Hints:
This protein is an alpha+beta fold. It is 42% helix and 18% strand.
Amino acid sequence: MAQQVKRAFKYRFYPTDEQAAELSRTFGCVRLVYNKALEERTRAWYGEQRRVSYVQSSAALTEWKKTEELAFLAEVSSVPLQQALRHLQTAFGNFFARRAKYPRFKSRKKSRLSAEYTRSAFKWRDGKLTLAKMTEPLDIRWSRPLPGGAEPTTATVSRDSAGRWFVSLLCEDGIAPAPATTNAVGIDAGLTSLVTLSTGEKITNPKHERRDRARLTRAQRALSRKEKGSANREKARRKAARTHARITDRRRDFLHKLTTRLVRENQTVVIEDLAVRNMVKNHSLARAISDASWTELRSMLEYKCAWYGRELVVIDRFFPSSKLCGACGTVAAKMPLHVREWTCDCGAVHDRDVNAARNILAAGLAASACGDGVRPQRESSRTGRSSMKQETQRATAGIPRL
């Protein structure tokens, strides 16, 4: 039976000069309202230890519109301004729940330019979207159709650093579970091979940033030579931004195709909980790790498995997948990165990445089946081996070795 989920469908559009001017004013007003409300909340919190609610911020917004200095806030749609206050409320809720850091002010140059319109602030008729304060519908390039009979509940308009305009439509969509299968796969993330599967397949890392590095270097070098504030500097900035956007788009497209294939082919997907934030502190590998985008890969697997009725198992980051012999359960004392193939004392010869992927799969299946932990356990007095090693051997018993 299909489950109802909320999905965002993102499209590029080309605004008229009047629409672009209206949206630019709205972006500026959204940023101003967010920053001003954050300033008021910060003053109340640090000065009086008092929390300001969304209702109080909304009332303050009404008063700001009545002042001569901020009267221009009334010239744009009120809904994106109210949504900015709701987003700020969510940010503070995450902060007080210790899920995020203290909210930061939006920058004119670095922050994402966007405005969110709820159903009361746009008109959807005959497949055309018209935003509040506009007389003409947006010229949207429908790269893919919306679900049959879907009605957008929220429209988020944004403009990226390359000057491209996008609209994201949030809709209710019924997603049917994928056909059941008995396949399971363990995934070992890497740099030479983006992922190595427990089946022995290695998917080469496309290295999108490296492929465009020369073009990006030229664009950034040209940008650094331009005088600040000049029209030529803005042109050079747009050119560099387009190169970055090209890299990002190609990377995301590749990850979407890869994760969709993995989810469709396998009932259970097992991955490692990588500490990417700590790994990028290695300055010699930070650029390559960022280009691999392991965090985005995991994020895609998470929501696609939830959509299509698959199981995603995440094993502990301290599980010694690379150092563990899948044949006898022995853990090697050390395993430097340059070692790509190693021989265990039992005589088994392992490809480092394939062995790691198979150990990840075995650990994930063990954890899923019997709830055993996937961190290295202390040796038991009865067997002299950890429970994880025993479960790993049992789970890998039926997996053919290469």
